[in-house]
Write a structure and sequence with these properties.
The complex is a heterodimer of chains A (about 250) and B (about 375). With about 250 residues, chain A is of the alpha/beta class. Chain A has a single domain, classed as 3-Layer(aba) Sandwich (Rossmann fold). Chain A has helices spanning about 35-50, 70-80, 95-110, 125-135, 190-195, 235-245, and strands at about 1-5, 10, 35, 55-65, 80-85, 110-115, 140-150, 150-160, 160-170, 170-175, 200-205. A nine-stranded mixed sheet of chain A has the order 9-8-7-10-6-1-4-5-11, sandwiched between helices. In chain A, strands 2-3 form a two-stranded antiparallel ribbon. With about 375 residues, chain B is of the alpha+beta class. Chain B is about 50% helix and about 15% strand. Chain B contains 13 helices and ten strands. A four-stranded mixed sheet of chain B has the order 1-4-5-8. In chain B, strands 2-3-7-6 form a four-stranded antiparallel sheet, with no helix packed on it. In chain B, helix 5 (about 80-95) packs antiparallel against helix 8 (about 230-250), helix 9 runs parallel beside helix 11 and helix 11 (about 315-340) runs antiparallel to helix 12 (about 350-355). Chain B is globular. The chains are: A alpha/beta (about 250), B alpha+beta (about 375). Bound molecules: flavin-adenine dinucleotide (2 copies).
C-alpha cells in the first residue's frame, strides 16, 4: 500500500509573528521555518504504519519554492522513501494546492493520503477536505487514532461531543489531529541518509493545474494587545469580577 | 562556517532532546549532585548524537567538526551548565585522541561503546599538583612486561565517579617533560583505582567531579593510545576540540540569561516604571547580546579553520578566552538587574552565575589562553626552563 503525505513549510511555531508595517502580510525574512507540526504528525503516523507493515511506500509531497526542498529533506529523514516537489515560487491558494495534491495522488496511484488537519500559518483547515472532494474519496478528518486494513481504515476522531469512530473504504484521505501521536526525534544517521533520497520536481503545469487567484488578502493586522489581567483571591471575587464586566 | 539544512536538523534534534529528556530533571539532578550519565548517554547514542565527527567504523557519522559545533551549541539550551559540559567530556574531551591515534583494538573496545552511549568516558589530566601546567603532572606509568603499572592521583575529574574508563595522561618515562608522557585508556573499575571522593563544588553541581587515586593500577600495554612519549602532543591537539566545544556550548545559555533578564525586568516595577524601561538596562542587555553574537562569529571562524585543516589554535584559544570572560560578564551584569531575586539560589540567573564561572578556569584558564595567544602572536611566551 502506498501512502502520500503532504508537508508544508511554515514559520516555526516558536517564532513571534510580526506583521509587515504596510499590512501586506507577515515578516518572513530571517525567520525560522519548519515543517507544519500537524504534517509532522501525519508523517509520523505514516512511518508507524509502515513499521507495522501496513504501508509499503511513503511518498512525501510539498508545493512551493526552492526553499521547500528542506521541508522534503526533513520528511525524508522521518522515513519517507522519496519525495515529489511541486515547484511554484508564487502564491499557492488553497484550491490550487488541493488540485495539485489530488493530481499527485492520482499520478502516484496511492491508496492513502495523510496530511495535517491544518497548517499553522493560515489555519485554513481545508486542504484535506478539498482533496477528498476533488477525488471523490472518503475522508476522515481530525484523526486521533488510525487503524489500517487491506481495504479500509478505522479512524477515531475528536468531535465536540467526544470521540467518533469512522470506518472508511480505501483509498481515502485522513487528516491528523494533535493527539494522533508524538513525532519521534530525527536520528542523525537518518538526517544524513535523507540527503541521498530522490526528490522528483514537477510544475503545476505538468500536473495540469493553473494557479488560481480566487482569494484576495486585503489586509493583515496584528491581534489587539492583551490588556493586563487582575489576580483574584476567591471564587466569589472572580464571580463578582466577571459580573462586573457583564461576562456572566 | 555555513549552517546547512543538516546542521539545522542536528541542532533541532539536540535541542529537542535537551528540552524533553534533560531539562525536566535538572533541578532534581542539581540537588542530588549527580546525573545518570549511563541512562542519558545511552539515549543520545541511540539517536547518533555522540559520534557526529567520529568515523563510521566506530558507529559515528564521519562529519566534519562544524556539525559537532552545531550539536554543542544546541546543548546550550540545557537549563544548567553541568550537563552539557559532562556530555562534552564524552564527545570532545576524552575521545578525540583515541579516535585519531587509537589502535583498532582500543577503538573497538572503548571508542565504539562511547559513541553508542554504552560506556561513559572521562578525561584525566589535572592533578593536585598540576592543572594549568599540564607538563608538570606527577602520575607515572611503569612498563612491566605487557602491562603499565600506574600510580598517582587525578583531581577534578568530570564524570569521575561513574565513568567506565578514562583517557589518562601519565609520565611513561624520564627526561623532557614534553616528551615523556603518554595517553592511556584506564578502565576505572581496575584494582587500585579509588574514586570514592566526590567533590563539593560552587556550581555545575549535577555534574559529578571526582578525585581519583591510583595505587599500582595494572593496565594492559595495548591500552596505550598511539605512541609512547607522544601523550603531551596528543593532549594539546585534543584541547582544540575541547576548547571549541566549550565556547560553542555556552552561547545559548548566555542568550537565555539575557532573555530571562529582559523578561524579569519587564514585569518588575520600581519608581513608577518597569526596570527594563530604564534605558541604561536596555542598552546594557543590548550590548551583551551583541557580544554573544560576536563570540558566536569567532567560534564559527575558528571552526572553519579547523575544518579546513589549518592550525586553529590561535582562534580556538581566543574563542575559549572570550567565552569564559563573557560568561562571567553576562551572568554578573544580569544578576545585578534581578536585584535580590537574582541572589536567590533557585533563580535561573544564579544558576548560570555559578555554572558559567567554571569556564574561565576549566579546559585551560583564561591566563593559559592568553599565554597561547601571546606566543602565537609573537609577543613572548618563552617558557622558563623546567
Ligand atoms: C568543575 C571542574 C571540572 C573539571 N574537569 C576536569 C576533567 O574532567 N579532567 C581534567 O583533567 N581536569 C578537569 N578540571 C581541572 C581544570 O582543567 C583545571 O582546574 C584547570 O586546568 C586549572 O588548573 P588548576 O585548577 O590547577 O589551576 P592552577 O594551575 O593552579 O592555576 C590557578 C590560576 O592561576 C592563574 N595562572 C595559571 N597559570 C598562569 C600563567 N601562566 N600566567 C598567569 N596566571 C596563571 C590562573 O588564573 C589560574 O586560574 C576540572 C575543574 C573543575 C573546576
Ligand atoms: C541576602 C539578602 C539580604 C537582604 N536583607 C534585607 C533586610 O534585612 N532587610 C530588608 O529590608 N531588605 C533586605 N534585602 C533586600 C535588598 O535590600 C533588596 O534586594 C535591594 O534593595 C534591591 O531591591 P530589589 O531586590 O527589589 O531590586 P529591584 O528594586 O527590583 O531592582 C532590581 C535591579 O534593577 C536595577 N535598577 C533598579 N532601579 C534602577 C534605576 N532607577 N535605574 C537603573 N537600574 C535600576 C538595579 O540593577 C537593581 O539591582 C536583602 C536582600 C538579599 C539578597
Amino acid at each position: 500500500m502506498k501512502a502520500l503525505v503532504s508537508v508544508k513549510r511554515v514559520v516555526d511555531y516558536n517564532v513571534r509573528i510580526q506583521v509587515k508595517p504596510d499590512g501586506s502580510g507577515v515578516v518572513t525574512d530571517g525567520v525560522k521555518f519548519s515543517v507544519n507540526p500537524f504534517d509532522e504528525i501525519a508523517m509520523e503516523e505514516a512511518v508507524r504504519l509502515k513499521e507495522k507493515g501496513k504501508i509499503t511506500e511513503i511518498v512525501a509531497v510539498t508545493i512551493g519554492g526552492a526553499k521547500c526542498e528542506e521541508t522534503l529533506r526533513t520528511a525524508l529523514a522521518f522515513g519517507a522513501d522519496r519525495a515529489v516537489h511541486v515547484k511554484e515560487e508564487g502564491e499557492v491558494q488553497p484550491l490550487t494546492a488541493a488540485q495539485a495534491l489530488a493530481a499527485v495522488f492520482k499520478k502516484e496511484g496511492a491508496n492513502l493520503f495523510l496530511l495535517g488537519k491544518q497548517a499553522i500559518d493560515d489555519d485554513a483547515n481545508q486542504t484535506g477536505q478539498m482533496v477528498a472532494a476533488l477525488l471523490d474519496l472518503p475522508q476522515a478528518t481530525f484523526a486521533s487514532k488510525v487503524e489500517l486494513e487491506a481495504s479500509k481504515a478505522t479512524v477515531t476522531r475528536e468531535v465536540d461531543a467526544g470521540l467518533e469512530t469512522l470506518e472508511i473504504d480505501l483509498p481515502a484521505v485522513i487528516t491528523a489531529d494533535l493527539r494522533l501521536n508524538e513525532p519521534r526525534y530525527l536520528k542523525l544517521p537518518d538526517i544524513m541518509k535523507a540527503k541521498k533520497k530522490p526528490i522528483e520536481a514537477v510544475t503545476l503545469a505538468d500536473l495540469g493545474v493553473t494557479a488560481g487567484a480566487g482569494l484576495k488578502a486585503s489586509k493583515t493586522v496584528a491581534p489587539p494587545k492583551r490588556s493586563k489581567g487582575v489576580v483574584v483571591k476567591t471564587v466569589d471575587e472572580l464571580i463578582a469580577a466577571l459580573k462586573g464586566k457583564g461576562l456572566i | 562556517m555555513q549552517f546547512t539544512h543538516e546542521h539545522q536538523q542536528i541542532y533541532d534534534t539536540t535541542k529537542k532532546f535537551v528540552e524533553t529528556e534533560i531539562n525536566p530533571h535538572v533541578l532534581e539532578w542539581e540537588k542530588a549532585g549527580f546525573w545518570p550519565a549511563h541512562e542519558v548517554l545511552k539515549k543520545m547514542g541511540g539517536l547518533g548524537l555522540l559520534g557526529i565527527s567520529k568515523p563510521d567504523s566506530v558507529g559515528g557519522l564521519g562529519l566534519d567538526y562544524s556539525y559537532q559545533v552545531a550539536f554543542a551549541e544546541a546543548l546550550g539550551f540545557c537549563t544548567c551548565g553541568g550537563i552539557p559540559m559532562a556530555i562534552g567530556v564524552q564527545t570532545d574531551m576524552a575521545t578525540p585522541a583515541l579516535a585519531r591515534f587509537g589502535s583498532d583494538y582500543l577503538k573497538e573496545n572503548f571508542l565504539k561503546p562511547a559513541v553508542a552511549g554504552e560506556m561513559v568516558a572521562a578525561i584525566a589530566v589535572s592533578e593536585p599538583g598540576a592543572g594549568s601546567d599540564v607538563a608538570g603532572i606527577k602520575t607515572t606509568a611503569r612498563k612491566v612486561g605487557e602491562e603499565y603499572v600506574i600510580s598517582g592521583s587525578k583531581l577534578w575529574i568530570t564524570n569521575g565517579t561513574q565513568a567506565d574508563w578514562a583517557c589518562m595522561l601519565v609520565n611513561s618515562g624520564e627526561g623532557d617533560r614534553h616528551g615523556n608522557k603518554s595517553l592511556i585508556v584506564v578502565p576505572l573499575d581496575a584494582k587500585g583505582v579509588d574514586r570514592r571522593q566526590k567533590l563539593d563544588k560552587l556550581g555545575q553541581r549535577s555534574s559529578d567531579t571526582a578525585m581519583i587515586f591510583l595505587d599500582e593500577v595494572r593496565v594492559p600495554a595495548r591500552n596505550l593510545i598511539g605512541q609512547e612519549g607522544k601523550g603531551f602532543t596528543y593532549q594539546m591537539q585534543q584541547f582544540q576540540e575541547e576548547r571549541l566545544f566549550l565556547s560553542a556550548s555556552i552561547i545559548a545559555a548566555m542568550e537565555r540569561v539575557i532573555d530571562d533578564t529582559a523578561a524579569y525586568t519587564r514585569q518588575r516595577q520600581a519608581f513608577g516604571q518597569s526596570i527594563l524601561d530604564n534605558q541604561y538596562v536596555q542598552f546594557r542587555l543590548s550590548e551583551l547580546k551583541t557580544e554573544v553574537e560576536a563570540l558566536r562569529a569567532l567560534t564559527y571562524r575558528a571552526t572553519t579553520e579547523l575544518v579546513a585543516g589549518r592550525d586553529a589554535a590561535l582562534l580556538a584559544s581566543m574563542a575559549k578566552l572570550k567565552s569564559g570572560r563573557l560568561g562571567r560578564e553576562v551572568t554578573d551584569a544580569c544578576l545585578q538587574f534581578w536585584g535580590g531575586q537574582g541572589y536567590m539560589w533557585e533563580s535561573s540567573v544564579a544558576q548560570f552565575y555559578r555554572d558559567l564561572r567554571l569556564h574561565s578556569i576549566g579546559g585551560g584558564a583564561d591566563e593559559v589562553m592568553l599565554g597561547i595567544i601571546s606566543k602565537r602572536l609573537g609577543y613572548g611566551g618563552k617558557r622558563k626552563p623546567s
